[in-house]
Each structure stands twice: as structure tokens, then as C-alpha cells.
Specification:
α6 crosses α8 and α8 runs parallel beside α9. By secondary structure, the protein is α/β, with parallel strands linked by helices. It is built from 11 helices and 8 strands. Bound molecules: SN-glycerol-3-phosphate. SN-glycerol-3-phosphate (G3P) binds next to α7.
Length: about 220
């Protein structure tokens, strides 16, 4: 399973990269706005800076909502770097745009996925990645992980090549459960990735080892 970090914050991207386990980065318009990145020139420059930091797939989202706008933006984003994956929302125009850019050798990440039906359409359109938002499904008292498992089963039965990218991850346990459910990729806040490191018995065990070593060597 690949690990992407879900942020536009360069410091956090660098920290995830330094951990040595990072395979890519995802962003969205909310995450770009959170970092104060505004205006087309700055947005494109920021994506370029991310591509220069991480040698992996970098999802960059279109803002346009109509077919023409999405393919124009998608082409401009794809020109930044070969690792750019154009993120397109699951709408009627979005599906048509995914088909079009895929036919023009541009890779895509179909975002805002909340149902298996949407996942089937995105795969048929040729999306490279599919982003079910598991945390937001959990927010609605539904089980986001169940959707990952359902999509994984369908994709296996049908032989679809689209990779399942579990998004809207909120906790380390989401990462573990997404892995169990068959996600190909998780995109997570840095805090959830770092949360995987933690176990009190590891801390207690290490303290004991160091204490025993100190006693034996003093
Ligand atoms: O990858 C999608 C993600 O950024 C959305 O996360 O926590 O806003 O639902 P969240």
C-alpha cells in the first residue's frame, strides 16, 4: 500500500518525506487555501515546489466545474511536471473530462467519492486513482471502511485497474483498516502517519532496555 500525505504545507511534506516512507502528495482547494496559496501563478508555482520536494505522484485539483474548464486546467496542471495527477470531482462533466484527459495521456484522481456506483463510473472513465472520503462517510454515521472493501471487491471482480486511494483519513486506525479493506493507497494528515509509530509498550520496553544497558555498563 502506498502512503501519500494529504497537505499543501511544505514543512509537513518535507517531514513526511524525511521519514522515508512517502510515495506521493494529495492536495485540494481547501488545503491550498489553508496555506494561503491564491491566484493561478502562485498555485502552479506551489505545485512545482511540491514536485521538486517529492519524487512521487502529486494530485493537483481543478477548480473549474464544466468540461471545457476542467480539461484546460488539467492540461495546464499536467504541464507543470510529469508526476502531476489531475484531481477531478465526481460529476457528469468530471467523468467526461476524466475520459478526455486519460485519452490524452494525463493521469487523474477522481475525488469526492461516496458510493460504489460512483467508483464504477470513475473506473470506466479510466481514472488512475479513485478517492473515497472515508472520514466524511463516518461523519454521517456510515462506515467509510465498508465502502473501501466494497469497491475493492468490485474492482477485483471486474478487473478494473483504477487504484483505490483512501482519503479523508482522520486517525492511524483508519490507515490500518483501509489496508485491511484493500486500499491501494492511503492519503493522510502527517499526524495520522506519525500516530502509527506510537505504542506505550514500545516506550516502556525501550526505557527498560536502556536502563538495563546503563546498569550493566556503569
Ligand atoms: O483527501 C481528502 C481530504 O483532504 C478531506 O479530508 O478531513 O476534510 O474530510 P477531510
Amino acid at each position: 500500500m502506498k502512503f501519500f500525505v494529504d497537505t499543501a504545507n511544505l514543512e509537513q511534506i518535507r517531514e513526511a518525506q524525511d521519514l522515508g516512507i512517502l510515495d506521493g502528495v494529495t492536495t485540494n482547494p481547501s488545503l491550498m487555501a489553508k496555506e494561503g496559496i491564491t491566484g493561478e501563478v502562485n498555485v502552479l508555482a506551489h505545485y512545482k515546489a511540491i514536485c521538486e520536494l517529492v519524487d512521487g505522484d502529486i494530485s493537483a485539483e481543478v477548480i473549474g466545474t464544466d468540461f471545457e474548464g476542467m480539461i484546460k486546467e488539467g492540461q495546464a496542471l499536467a504541464e507543470i511536471h510529469e508526476n502531476i495527477v489531475v484531481k477531478v470531482p465526481m460529476t457528469k462533466d468530471g467523468v467526461t473530462a476524466i475520459r478526455w484527459v486519460t485519452d490524452h495521456d494525463i493521469r487523474t484522481n477522481c475525488t469526492l467519492i461516496f458510493s460504489a456506483g460512483q467508483a464504477i463510473l470513475a473506473a470506466k472513465a479510466g481514472a488512475t486513482y479513485l478517492s473515497p472520503f472515508i472520514g466524511r462517510i463516518d461523519d454521517m454515521n456510515w462506515d467509510g471502511i465498508e465502502l473501501i472493501a466494497q469497491i475493492a471487491e468490485i474492482y477485483t471482480i471486474q478487473g478494473y485497474q483504477t487504484e483505490i486511494l483512501a482519503a479523508s483519513i482522520r486517525t492511524p486506525l483508519h490507515i490500518v483498516r483501509a489496508a485491511e479493506a484493500g486500499a491501494d493507497v492511503v492519503t493522510c494528515p502527517l499526524s495520522s502517519i506519525l500516530g502509527l509509530l506510537k505504542h506505550p509498550l514500545t516506550d516502556i520496553g525501550l526505557a527498560q532496555f536502556l536502563a538495563d544497558h546503563k546498569k550493566a555498563n556503569s
